[in-house]
Amino acid sequence: VSVLAIGIAHADIEELRTIASPTTYKNIFFASDFDDLPTVEREFISSICSEALQSEFKQHDE
């Protein structure tokens, strides 16, 4: 299970790192303001799809 963290504007990056699991740059997203959320949404979806594909390939290799 992965937990993703999304911060807006003046979000505390250390708090986002605490929320995200595992704590990697792939699981932390940041938007400068609410108008920037569509960009973060695309990154978020790309990350989720990438994780799903990697998991699918691992299952077929076993």
From TrEMBL:
InterPro entries: vWFA_dom_sf. Gene3D superfamilies: von Willebrand factor, type A domain (3.40.50.410). This is Uncharacterized protein. It comes from Cirrhinus mrigala.
